[in-house]
Protein backbone atom coordinates (compact mmCIF):
# COMPACT_ATOMS: atom_id res chain seq x y z
CA UNK A 1 0.00 0.00 0.00
CA UNK A 2 1.22 3.50 -0.86
CA UNK A 3 0.60 6.42 1.50
CA UNK A 4 0.93 9.93 0.05
CA UNK A 5 1.29 13.12 2.08
CA UNK A 6 0.18 16.36 0.46
CA UNK A 7 1.65 19.80 1.11
CA UNK A 8 -0.83 22.17 2.72
CA UNK A 9 -2.40 24.89 0.59
CA UNK A 10 -4.35 26.85 3.21
CA UNK A 11 -2.72 30.28 3.79
CA UNK A 12 -0.80 30.32 7.05
CA UNK A 13 -0.87 26.54 7.54
CA UNK A 14 2.71 25.48 8.34
CA UNK A 15 2.07 21.99 9.69
CA UNK A 16 2.57 18.75 7.79
CA UNK A 17 0.74 15.44 8.24
CA UNK A 18 3.86 13.26 8.12
CA UNK A 19 7.21 13.71 9.86
CA UNK A 20 10.33 11.57 9.38
CA UNK A 21 9.88 9.66 12.64
CA UNK A 22 6.35 8.68 11.59
CA UNK A 23 7.69 7.44 8.24
CA UNK A 24 9.63 4.81 10.15
CA UNK A 25 6.45 3.75 11.96
CA UNK A 26 4.59 3.16 8.69
CA UNK A 27 7.58 1.43 7.11
CA UNK A 28 7.48 -1.24 9.81
CA UNK A 29 4.27 -2.48 8.18
CA UNK A 30 5.88 -2.57 4.77
CA UNK A 31 3.97 0.42 3.41
CA UNK A 32 5.50 2.79 0.85
CA UNK A 33 5.59 6.49 1.72
CA UNK A 34 5.50 9.44 -0.66
CA UNK A 35 5.83 13.07 0.40
CA UNK A 36 5.18 16.08 -1.79
CA UNK A 37 8.40 18.03 -2.27
CA UNK A 38 8.70 20.86 0.24
CA UNK A 39 5.69 19.71 2.29
CA UNK A 40 7.60 19.85 5.57
CA UNK A 41 9.73 22.94 4.94
CA UNK A 42 7.61 25.35 6.99
CA UNK A 43 7.71 22.94 9.94
CA UNK A 44 11.53 22.55 9.70
CA UNK A 45 11.41 19.09 8.13
CA UNK A 46 13.52 19.03 4.97
CA UNK A 47 13.11 16.75 1.97
CA UNK A 48 16.42 15.06 2.81
CA UNK A 49 15.06 14.19 6.28
CA UNK A 50 12.22 12.24 4.67
CA UNK A 51 14.58 10.55 2.24
CA UNK A 52 16.78 9.52 5.16
CA UNK A 53 13.73 7.87 6.73
CA UNK A 54 13.07 5.93 3.47
CA UNK A 55 10.22 8.03 2.11
CA UNK A 56 10.12 9.08 -1.55
CA UNK A 57 9.99 12.83 -2.14
CA UNK A 58 7.87 13.57 -5.20
CA UNK A 59 7.63 16.82 -7.15
CA UNK A 60 4.22 17.31 -8.74
CA UNK A 61 0.79 16.51 -7.36
CA UNK A 62 -0.06 14.08 -10.16
CA UNK A 63 2.95 11.84 -9.55
CA UNK A 64 2.42 12.06 -5.79
CA UNK A 65 -1.16 10.80 -5.90
CA UNK A 66 -0.92 8.33 -8.78
CA UNK A 67 -1.89 4.92 -7.39
CA UNK A 68 -1.92 6.10 -3.75
CA UNK A 69 -4.19 4.05 -1.50
CA UNK A 70 -4.08 6.49 1.43
CA UNK A 71 -3.70 10.28 1.42
CA UNK A 72 -2.73 12.27 4.52
CA UNK A 73 -3.35 15.98 5.10
CA UNK A 74 -3.77 18.45 7.94
CA UNK A 75 -6.48 20.78 6.61
CA UNK A 76 -9.56 19.76 4.61
CA UNK A 77 -8.86 19.49 0.88
CA UNK A 78 -9.95 22.20 -1.51
CA UNK A 79 -12.38 21.29 -4.27
CA UNK A 80 -9.47 21.14 -6.71
CA UNK A 81 -7.59 18.80 -4.38
CA UNK A 82 -10.63 16.53 -4.07
CA UNK A 83 -10.77 16.26 -7.85
CA UNK A 84 -7.09 15.21 -7.87
CA UNK A 85 -7.56 12.38 -5.36
CA UNK A 86 -7.48 8.81 -6.72
CA UNK A 87 -10.99 7.41 -6.90
CA UNK A 88 -11.61 4.97 -4.07
CA UNK A 89 -8.64 6.07 -1.98
CA UNK A 90 -8.68 6.64 1.79
CA UNK A 91 -8.28 10.24 2.99
CA UNK A 92 -7.35 11.03 6.60
CA UNK A 93 -7.32 14.66 7.80
CA UNK A 94 -9.39 17.43 9.35
CA UNK A 95 -12.67 17.68 7.45
CA UNK A 96 -14.75 20.15 9.50
CA UNK A 97 -17.53 17.56 9.15
CA UNK A 98 -20.24 19.67 10.79
CA UNK A 99 -19.37 22.81 8.84
CA UNK A 100 -20.00 23.70 5.18
CA UNK A 101 -21.01 20.61 3.23
CA UNK A 102 -19.52 21.16 -0.23
CA UNK A 103 -16.25 19.29 0.35
CA UNK A 104 -17.95 16.35 2.08
CA UNK A 105 -20.37 16.01 -0.83
CA UNK A 106 -17.49 16.18 -3.31
CA UNK A 107 -15.56 13.46 -1.46
CA UNK A 108 -18.59 11.18 -1.54
CA UNK A 109 -19.06 11.82 -5.25
CA UNK A 110 -15.39 10.97 -5.81
CA UNK A 111 -15.83 7.63 -4.06
CA UNK A 112 -13.28 8.53 -1.39
CA UNK A 113 -13.36 6.84 2.02
CA UNK A 114 -12.81 9.97 4.12
CA UNK A 115 -11.94 9.87 7.81
CA UNK A 116 -12.39 13.02 9.90
CA UNK A 117 -9.84 13.23 12.72
CA UNK A 118 -12.18 15.59 14.63
CA UNK A 119 -14.57 12.67 15.20
CA UNK A 120 -12.17 10.33 17.00
CA UNK A 121 -14.17 9.11 20.04
CA UNK A 122 -13.03 9.99 23.54
CA UNK A 123 -12.32 6.45 24.70
CA UNK A 124 -9.21 4.99 26.27
CA UNK A 125 -8.00 2.99 23.29
CA UNK A 126 -8.29 6.02 21.02
CA UNK A 127 -6.15 8.33 23.16
CA UNK A 128 -3.05 7.95 21.01
CA UNK A 129 -5.11 9.07 17.99
CA UNK A 130 -6.68 12.11 19.65
CA UNK A 131 -5.75 14.93 17.29
CA UNK A 132 -8.03 17.48 18.97
CA UNK A 133 -6.30 17.04 22.32
CA UNK A 134 -2.76 17.19 20.95
CA UNK A 135 -3.42 20.33 18.93
CA UNK A 136 -5.39 21.92 21.78
CA UNK A 137 -2.28 21.46 23.93
CA UNK A 138 -0.32 23.53 21.44
CA UNK A 139 -3.05 26.17 21.22
CA UNK A 140 -3.37 26.56 24.99
CA UNK A 141 0.38 27.05 25.36
CA UNK A 142 0.69 29.50 22.49
CA UNK A 143 -2.38 31.48 23.58
CA UNK A 144 -0.69 32.47 26.84
CA UNK A 145 2.55 33.41 25.07
CA UNK A 146 0.67 35.57 22.58
CA UNK A 147 -1.37 37.15 25.34
CA UNK A 148 1.73 37.88 27.41
CA UNK A 149 3.32 39.50 24.37
CA UNK A 150 0.34 41.81 23.97
CA UNK A 151 0.15 42.91 27.59
CA UNK A 152 1.64 46.13 28.94
CA UNK A 153 2.68 44.37 32.18
CA UNK A 154 4.98 41.59 33.32
CA UNK A 155 3.37 38.26 34.16
CA UNK A 156 5.66 37.20 37.07
CA UNK A 157 6.48 38.97 40.29
CA UNK A 158 9.86 40.68 40.01
CA UNK A 159 12.04 42.11 42.74
CA UNK A 160 14.35 44.74 41.28
CA UNK A 161 16.42 47.73 42.31
CA UNK A 162 13.51 49.84 41.12
CA UNK A 163 11.13 48.06 43.48
CA UNK A 164 8.88 45.02 43.49
CA UNK A 165 6.56 44.29 40.58
CA UNK A 166 3.42 42.43 41.57
CA UNK A 167 2.46 39.39 39.47
CA UNK A 168 -0.25 39.70 36.86
CA UNK A 169 -3.54 37.87 37.20
CA UNK A 170 -4.67 35.46 34.51
CA UNK A 171 -8.09 33.88 34.13
CA UNK A 172 -8.78 30.87 31.92
CA UNK A 173 -12.36 30.22 30.80
CA UNK A 174 -12.86 26.54 29.99
CA UNK A 175 -10.72 23.80 31.53
CA UNK A 176 -10.50 21.31 28.69
CA UNK A 177 -7.15 20.33 27.21
CA UNK A 178 -6.40 23.82 25.85
CA UNK A 179 -7.52 25.47 29.07
CA UNK A 180 -5.46 23.21 31.30
CA UNK A 181 -2.37 23.83 29.18
CA UNK A 182 -3.05 27.56 29.33
CA UNK A 183 -3.29 27.33 33.12
CA UNK A 184 -0.01 25.41 33.34
CA UNK A 185 1.78 27.84 31.01
CA UNK A 186 0.53 30.96 32.81
CA UNK A 187 1.60 29.44 36.13
CA UNK A 188 5.07 28.61 34.76
CA UNK A 189 5.39 32.22 33.65
CA UNK A 190 4.59 33.40 37.16
CA UNK A 191 1.02 34.66 36.91
CA UNK A 192 -1.60 34.25 39.62
CA UNK A 193 -4.15 32.06 37.83
CA UNK A 194 -7.84 31.35 38.27
CA UNK A 195 -10.06 29.25 36.02
CA UNK A 196 -13.74 28.75 35.36
CA UNK A 197 -15.60 25.80 33.89
CA UNK A 198 -19.23 24.72 34.14
CA UNK A 199 -18.10 21.12 34.77
CA UNK A 200 -17.37 20.61 38.50
CA UNK A 201 -15.47 17.43 37.64
CA UNK A 202 -12.48 19.48 36.41
CA UNK A 203 -12.00 21.33 39.71
CA UNK A 204 -9.39 18.87 40.95
CA UNK A 205 -7.39 19.16 37.72
CA UNK A 206 -7.44 22.96 37.87
CA UNK A 207 -6.32 23.06 41.48
CA UNK A 208 -3.59 20.47 40.89
CA UNK A 209 -1.99 22.97 38.51
CA UNK A 210 -1.95 25.66 41.19
CA UNK A 211 -4.92 27.68 39.97
CA UNK A 212 -8.00 28.82 41.85
CA UNK A 213 -11.23 27.25 40.59
CA UNK A 214 -14.16 29.62 40.16
CA UNK A 215 -17.18 27.46 40.78
CA UNK A 216 -20.73 28.01 39.58
CA UNK A 217 -23.67 26.11 41.01
CA UNK A 218 -25.73 24.68 38.17
CA UNK A 219 -28.90 22.64 38.63
CA UNK A 220 -28.56 20.77 35.32
CA UNK A 221 -26.06 18.34 33.85
CA UNK A 222 -23.10 20.37 32.60
CA UNK A 223 -21.40 17.82 30.33
CA UNK A 224 -22.44 15.23 27.77
CA UNK A 225 -21.50 11.56 27.55
CA UNK A 226 -18.27 12.41 25.74
CA UNK A 227 -17.12 14.73 28.52
CA UNK A 228 -17.73 17.92 26.54
CA UNK A 229 -19.62 20.89 27.99
CA UNK A 230 -23.33 21.03 27.24
CA UNK A 231 -25.18 24.11 26.07
CA UNK A 232 -26.77 25.74 29.12
CA UNK A 233 -30.29 27.05 29.55
CA UNK A 234 -30.73 30.80 29.34
CA UNK A 235 -31.14 31.07 33.11
CA UNK A 236 -27.99 29.09 33.83
CA UNK A 237 -26.05 31.04 31.21
CA UNK A 238 -27.03 34.30 32.92
CA UNK A 239 -25.69 32.94 36.23
CA UNK A 240 -22.48 31.98 34.44
CA UNK A 241 -22.07 35.47 32.99
CA UNK A 242 -22.68 37.06 36.38
CA UNK A 243 -19.88 35.01 37.94
CA UNK A 244 -17.44 35.89 35.14
CA UNK A 245 -18.33 39.59 35.30
CA UNK A 246 -17.59 39.63 39.03
CA UNK A 247 -14.02 38.38 38.51
CA UNK A 248 -12.88 39.55 35.06
CA UNK A 249 -12.31 43.19 35.97
CA UNK A 250 -9.40 42.22 38.23
CA UNK A 251 -7.50 40.18 35.62
CA UNK A 252 -4.79 41.26 33.21
CA UNK A 253 -4.90 38.25 30.88
CA UNK A 254 -7.96 36.20 29.94
CA UNK A 255 -7.84 33.11 27.72
CA UNK A 256 -11.16 31.68 26.56
CA UNK A 257 -11.47 28.12 25.27
CA UNK A 258 -15.16 27.24 25.62
CA UNK A 259 -16.68 25.47 22.63
CA UNK A 260 -19.63 23.12 22.07
CA UNK A 261 -19.15 20.64 19.20
CA UNK A 262 -21.41 21.42 16.25
CA UNK A 263 -22.67 24.72 17.70
CA UNK A 264 -21.65 28.35 17.88
CA UNK A 265 -19.31 29.14 20.76
CA UNK A 266 -21.08 30.47 23.87
CA UNK A 267 -20.61 34.16 24.59
CA UNK A 268 -18.89 34.43 27.98
CA UNK A 269 -17.48 37.95 27.82
CA UNK A 270 -19.74 40.87 26.97
CA UNK A 271 -18.69 44.29 25.72
CA UNK A 272 -19.58 45.64 29.16
CA UNK A 273 -17.19 43.17 30.80
CA UNK A 274 -14.37 44.23 28.46
CA UNK A 275 -15.01 47.86 29.38
CA UNK A 276 -14.60 46.96 33.06
CA UNK A 277 -11.06 45.62 32.56
CA UNK A 278 -7.88 47.63 33.08
CA UNK A 279 -6.28 49.26 30.01
CA UNK A 280 -3.33 47.14 28.85
CA UNK A 281 -5.15 43.89 29.55
CA UNK A 282 -5.50 41.19 26.88
CA UNK A 283 -8.19 38.63 25.97
CA UNK A 284 -7.16 35.69 23.77
CA UNK A 285 -10.24 33.99 22.33
CA UNK A 286 -9.54 30.45 21.13
CA UNK A 287 -13.14 30.04 19.99
CA UNK A 288 -12.91 32.80 17.40
CA UNK A 289 -13.55 30.51 14.41
CA UNK A 290 -16.91 29.41 15.83
CA UNK A 291 -18.13 32.89 16.69
CA UNK A 292 -15.98 33.66 19.72
CA UNK A 293 -16.47 33.62 23.48
CA UNK A 294 -16.17 37.40 23.55
CA UNK A 295 -18.72 39.71 21.90
CA UNK A 296 -15.92 41.81 20.42
CA UNK A 297 -13.84 39.00 18.92
CA UNK A 298 -12.97 39.23 15.23
CA UNK A 299 -11.63 35.94 13.84
CA UNK A 300 -8.05 36.29 12.67
CA UNK A 301 -7.70 39.83 14.03
CA UNK A 302 -6.73 41.76 17.14
CA UNK A 303 -9.08 44.59 18.10
CA UNK A 304 -8.80 47.18 20.85
CA UNK A 305 -11.64 48.40 23.03
CA UNK A 306 -10.99 50.97 25.74
CA UNK A 307 -7.33 49.98 25.92
CA UNK A 308 -8.08 46.25 26.15
CA UNK A 309 -6.81 44.06 23.31
CA UNK A 310 -9.03 41.20 22.11
CA UNK A 311 -7.14 38.63 20.05
CA UNK A 312 -9.00 36.19 17.79
CA UNK A 313 -6.36 33.70 16.57
CA UNK A 314 -7.61 31.11 14.09
CA UNK A 315 -4.83 28.51 13.86
CA UNK A 316 -2.43 28.69 16.77
CA UNK A 317 -0.97 25.18 16.29
CA UNK A 318 0.40 26.37 12.93
CA UNK A 319 2.46 28.94 14.84
CA UNK A 320 4.43 26.10 16.48
CA UNK A 321 4.59 23.83 13.42
CA UNK A 322 7.51 21.60 14.39
CA UNK A 323 6.04 20.11 17.56
CA UNK A 324 2.44 20.48 16.37
CA UNK A 325 3.34 18.41 13.29
CA UNK A 326 5.15 15.82 15.38
CA UNK A 327 2.11 15.35 17.59
CA UNK A 328 -0.37 15.38 14.70
CA UNK A 329 1.68 12.89 12.68
CA UNK A 330 1.87 10.50 15.62
CA UNK A 331 -1.90 10.72 16.08
CA UNK A 332 -2.46 10.00 12.39
CA UNK A 333 -0.03 7.08 12.43
CA UNK A 334 -1.98 5.55 15.30
CA UNK A 335 -5.29 6.03 13.48
CA UNK A 336 -4.10 4.66 10.12
CA UNK A 337 -2.45 1.72 11.89
CA UNK A 338 -5.79 1.01 13.57
CA UNK A 339 -7.92 1.38 10.45
CA UNK A 340 -6.07 -1.22 8.36
CA UNK A 341 -5.64 -4.86 9.29
CA UNK A 342 -2.61 -6.95 8.23
CA UNK A 343 -4.16 -7.64 4.82
CA UNK A 344 -4.99 -3.98 4.19
CA UNK A 345 -8.69 -4.47 4.90
CA UNK A 346 -10.90 -2.14 6.92
CA UNK A 347 -13.43 -3.19 9.57
CA UNK A 348 -16.07 -0.49 9.25
CA UNK A 349 -17.94 -1.91 12.24
CA UNK A 350 -15.07 -1.09 14.59
CA UNK A 351 -16.05 1.64 17.06
CA UNK A 352 -13.20 4.03 16.19
CA UNK A 353 -13.33 3.40 12.45
CA UNK A 354 -17.11 3.80 12.30
CA UNK A 355 -17.04 7.02 14.32
CA UNK A 356 -14.43 8.71 12.13
CA UNK A 357 -15.57 7.51 8.69
CA UNK A 358 -17.56 10.28 6.99
CA UNK A 359 -17.85 9.06 3.40
CA UNK A 360 -17.57 5.61 1.84
CA UNK A 361 -18.64 4.02 -1.43
CA UNK A 362 -20.16 7.21 -2.76
CA UNK A 363 -22.28 7.81 0.35
CA UNK A 364 -22.08 9.98 3.45
CA UNK A 365 -21.94 7.40 6.24
CA UNK A 366 -21.83 9.48 9.42
CA UNK A 367 -25.28 10.20 10.84
CA UNK A 368 -24.42 13.62 12.30
CA UNK A 369 -22.84 14.68 9.02
CA UNK A 370 -25.91 13.47 7.09
CA UNK A 371 -28.15 15.48 9.42
CA UNK A 372 -25.96 18.54 8.89
CA UNK A 373 -26.17 18.06 5.12
CA UNK A 374 -29.96 17.69 5.28
CA UNK A 375 -30.25 20.91 7.27
CA UNK A 376 -27.97 22.73 4.81
CA UNK A 377 -29.96 21.40 1.86
CA UNK A 378 -33.24 22.54 3.40
CA UNK A 379 -31.80 25.96 4.12
CA UNK A 380 -30.65 26.31 0.50
CA UNK A 381 -34.09 25.22 -0.73
CA UNK A 382 -35.76 27.97 1.29
CA UNK A 383 -33.32 30.57 0.08
Helix/strand order: EHEHEHEHEHEHEEEHEHEHEHEEEHHEEH
Question: Shape, please?
Answer: globular
User: Spans with pLDDT under 50 lasting ≥5 residues?
Assistant: none
Give the strand content: 15-25%
Distance between the termini: 45 Å
Radius of gyration: 22 Å
Tally of strands:
17
Mean pLDDT: 93
Plain-language structure description:
With about 375 residues, the protein is α/β, with parallel strands linked by helices. Helices cover about 35% and strands about 15% of the residues. The chain is built from 13 helices and 17 strands. It has helices at about 20-25, 45-50, 60-65, 80-85, 100-110, 130-150, 175-190, 205-210, 235-250, 270-275, 320-340, 350-355, 365-380; strands at about 1-5, 30-35, 55-60, 70, 90-95, 115, 160, 165, 170-175, 190-195, 210-215, 255, 280-285, 300-305, 310, 355-360, 365. The strands form three sheets. It has an eight-stranded mixed β-sheet, with helices on both faces. A seven-stranded mixed β-sheet has the order 11-10-9-12-13-15-14, with helices on both faces. Strands 7-8 form a two-stranded antiparallel sheet. The protein is globular.
Amino acid sequence: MTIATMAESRPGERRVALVPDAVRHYRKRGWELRVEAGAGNAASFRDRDYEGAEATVVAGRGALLDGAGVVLKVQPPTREEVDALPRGCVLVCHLNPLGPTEIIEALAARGVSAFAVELIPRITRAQKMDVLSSQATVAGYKAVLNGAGGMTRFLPMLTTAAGTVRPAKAMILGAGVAGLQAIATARRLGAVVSAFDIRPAVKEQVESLGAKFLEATLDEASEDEGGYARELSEEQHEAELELIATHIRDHDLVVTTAQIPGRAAPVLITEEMVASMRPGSVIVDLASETGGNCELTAAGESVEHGGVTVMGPTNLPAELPFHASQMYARNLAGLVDHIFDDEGGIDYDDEITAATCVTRGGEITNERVRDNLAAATEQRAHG
